[in-house]
Amino acid sequence: MSDSEQYAGKSPDDAAADPVAEAEAQIRETREELAETVEALAAKADVKARAGEKVDETKETLAAKAAEAKELAAEKAAAAKAAAPSSPQEAADVARQNPAAVGGAAAVLLLLLLRRRRRRRRAAVAILLPD
Question: What is each CA distance from 71 to 60, 67, 114, in whole angstroms?
Fold first, then answer.
């Protein structure tokens, strides 16, 4: 289709205006796209703002995890309190029912105390008799 056929029935001014209007519309569209691209690049280049956002995200995450840990600790404390004997008499009864467990705990405690005593003596000798 030739130009004359394309613009048949239109005045010469209309024929000249269409390509210009079309070009102006393209220019406007290109400018809008370019403006969006520049804004996106500016946002990426703003390192300080991005770092601030990351800090805020991290703070929120840590606050949520801290609250979760606090709840879990409270639950565990309540469970431990419920499982623990409420009086010395109950503790004595539990010890009488499990003499092997009490003996094992006493043996572990004795070994820890002996080990501590031995380390302290070695440290004292090392101070008194340097190489």
Answer: 17, 6, 39
- Three-class DSSP category at 86: coil
Amino acid at 126: A
pLDDT digits (tens, 9 = 90+) for 74-93: 999 998 888 777 788 888 88
| Contact (Cβ atoms closer than 8 angstroms) between residue 112 and residue 104 | no
Question: What Rg, from alpha-carbon coordinates, does the chain have?
Answer: 41
The count of C-alpha atoms lying within 13 angstroms of the C-alpha of 114, restricted to the half-sphere facing its C-beta, is 6
Has this prediction a pTM greater than 0.85? Answer: no
- Give rounded-to-5 percent helix, strand, coil for the chain: 90, 0, 10
Q: What is the mean pLDDT of residues 102-108?
A: 93
